[in-house]
Amino acid sequence: MEKKKKTGKTFRALTACSVMGIVGVLMFAGLIGEEKTFSDQENRTLQTSPDITVAGVLDGSYETAYENYQNDQFPFRNQWIYLKSTVEKMLGKTEANGVFLGADDYLLENFEKQPEADYAKTMEALKNFSKTNENLQQYFLLVPNAVNIYADRLPMGAPVGDQDQAMDVFAADLTQTSIQNVDIRELFRDNTDTQLYYRMDHHWTTDAARLAFDPLAQSMGIEPEKTAFERILVSDDFVGTLAAKSGFHTNQKDAIAIYTPKDGLDVVVTYVEEQKKTGTFYNKEKLETKDQYAMFLDGNHAEIRIQTPAAEDRRLLVLKDSYANCMIPFLAPYYREIVVVDPRYYYGKLQELIQAEEIDQILFLYNANTFFMDRSLKNIK
Amino acid sequence: MIFSIVFNYVLGLDISCRSDDTKAAKRSLIFAVVVNLFILCFFKYYGFLVDTVNGIFRTTFSYKALPLPIGISFYTFQTMSYVIDVYKKKVTVQENIVKFGVYVSMFPQLIAGPIVRYVDIGRQLDRRIFSGEMFEQGCERFIRGLGKKVLLANSMGKLFETLHALPEGQTTTILAWLCVLAYTFQIYFDFSGYSDMAMGLGHMFGFHFPKNFDYPYQSKSITEFWRRWHISLSTWFREYVYIPLGGNRVSVKRHVINLLIVWMLTGLWHGASWNFVFWGMYYGILLILEKYVIGKYLEKLPSWLQGIYSIVLVMIGWVFFFSGTMQGAGATLEAMFRFDHGVWNGHTFYYLKENLILLLICMLASRRQLYVWYCRATANSKVLAALVHIIIFVLCIAFLVYDTYNPFLYFRF
Q1: ipTM over the 0.85 cut-off
Q2: Cα–Cα distance for residue pair A345/A301, rounded to 1 Å
Q3: Do A19 and B143 touch (CB under 8 A)?
Q4: Is B180 inside any structural domain?
């Protein structure tokens, strides 16, 4: 009898005790836990314990830093985030942070467009640029994204931007320049058997690049059949940026393939700003990190030069975003030199570069999501 | 606020000293009320007044927006309730300034209410009962409030913001209603969640605050809605404005005017701009209509229809509340009652499907029935009750941590 009464009493404060227990455990874990400096999940450095200074307290920067520190170092942070996205998924949510969870476990990033005025400036800059370089052959490969090509995988009625329409407008605008448009949308739509995009990442697959290489080569006057490529799998556990951006977890992992010429090809890849030289397009160390796609051309660099022993003395300038990184190896056998420039990081003078390197052809290679958001092409000269 | 505490404390003493001399006490009371209102007006309505004057006379006085002292609307009303009740001899004067200071600045309800009248809590300041059981109950109430705020109000708030930002052409009739519904839930769970947290914290330390919300969305008339919504505020206005004006024991004409005054002030209390005034008047007129015109017909309707009547009018009321301007309110109302932009489309399906479960949870949580079920289920099992609260608490942490989830979006693509 007495025992029963006693348990009754403990139970009466069960909620309060449990909650204080949880708070206690969290505080304790926060005290003994090791400070983390980088979040793989979020791909950013985390705030570490800020130093207290009089000036910092007065201008409020210490308080902000301290708050961020508390947030970033919250015990079991990733597990809490995992819990929340699981609950959201149970509630039937199929969108987080602009990423949709589509059929077949595809994550599809929404299409957003920059303001009309910015787009007009970009087109104006492109027009002037193409005029300056009239004597060179210029091409534009604008790669559609999964949200466009895999639209049927989107949740029903999902409110997405109309990328296809924006690309139509762009194609029409490009006819006013001397840049030749390479449109691969139909080709991609017809090739439903190939996995064109990574499920968990915003990039296209190397298979998709291989597919797009044929019409691109045809436009550029090179013969795609001349080089036989061999497909090699280099990873089967790629979980990319879209998984991180959305916080959606599926059990899917992607495979990464590379294509190398069967007869081999000796290349010298120079990262100009970093003053680094290697003999390969691939940095396999990146396969050990979260962002495995960075294995292609070591991620993004302002300027990369690729020299090959190609017979013909043709020189190509590629102005691009990261979608080009897995396409360059297909182009390499046909050019003695390829200069790869990412306008977002490049601050040199393009015309001087074109003169000095005796460039014959210029290729713009962007994915539509980046192109319609990017503002760096506005300043191209 | 310190000024407020000292000032009202002294005047409380003053009024009680002069309680024999009615005239002198009255003078002190008027002085106290005027000063309190002046402080409130100065901080809260200064900019609004200047704007209005500029608008009417086409002048261009400029003003610097004053920082609003935290909780000023709430604690001014609290101190006023105290001096008025001392004057009316409803309460005995508080001679201990520390205790008075505790009453005014009590942190749990300082920011978002409830407005605790001195009558309700005066005695507890002197004789406070503090027990483990109360601590437990307070803790549970706090967690339920936290859950309402973090899990429901914040989610509904996000839905509201998304839908409210949709371009006009994409807003179908149903989406416009969904948008207002999201706000309807957001403001209820936000406000009642804060109230619950305040009451829970108060309870943990041995204070009983009066109830502030009583499932307002299951009301069957607007009159009933205001008996269940923000009870502490409506009580305050009833006690200190409506009844002194004569209440309902006056001629019909006078009664109508009384109601309009009360509701204009209620609107103005919520914020210093015209849409709040309009929102208050909207309710004033509805209450008058219910009292004198449609009330008798309303009673004859089946109860589910009465429920729909009330919630629809309340939702329309919120449109005035959340729109910063009358034009904004007009645009939203137009979207709700026009059909030429389509009633239904693919996006409508998407947003409904995406939020269906959450909306159902909100609907359930805003009715008493859920609490009744909960009480029945946990009557014999304390463990189950604790489990429910622990789950809510853990989910709240997850939701709060997720808000700081900030993936570096410009992955160097």
Answers
A1: no
A2: 7
A3: yes
A4: yes
